[in-house]
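User: Structure please.
Assistant: Input sequence and predicted structure:
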Amino acid sequence: MSGERYLYDYKSHKAVMYQAGDALYPISSSKSEHWISGDYIFCSNTKTISFWILGKDVYGHLGRGELTREPVYYFGE
């Protein structure tokens, strides 16, 4: 992936993270907190699935394959 894209909060529509390559960084930070592999976003600290990507929508991963009912984030270009 070239360039950057932003992850926005679904409720506030404010950018909360940005993607550079496979890494996700909080806005105003240069330390990656997550990375993307396929349709999943993993936590850098725990190495577990944090979110699931469906199109531009991002759902929270609750564990044991369960997801949040509504998306929590979305990708903007």
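The chain has a mean pLDDT of 91.
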